[in-house]
Design a protein that fits this description.
single chain, alpha+beta, 5 helices, globular
Length: 119
Amino acid sequence: MEIWINPACSKCRSAISLLDAEGAEYTVRRYLEDVPNPDEIRAVLERLGLEPWDITRTGEADAKELGLKDWPRDEANRDRWVEALATHPKLIQRPIITAEDGTAVVGRTEEAVRDAMSR
């Protein structure tokens, strides 16, 4: 398992605490420092079964600056969204946990983290 975190995020810290309490084996990726490239973002999206706009933090200042709220959410604009996430990693929803079975979850709740551990 790998978990993408921002150490300043309380949801990320909670997820790490739960993984540790359960003795889970995982690696940490501080995605603001080790920024995922567009191909890695596409791979995680495929594992999540989501689109880039589904994991975009649209309330962030960068999102407002880019005008993301007005961007079309369709296949023709998918790469534009992916590039925005790669260029502005603060926009990526967190934490993202890649599970052993090849899937992934956005681990914002205890249930989601436990789901990732069970896969």
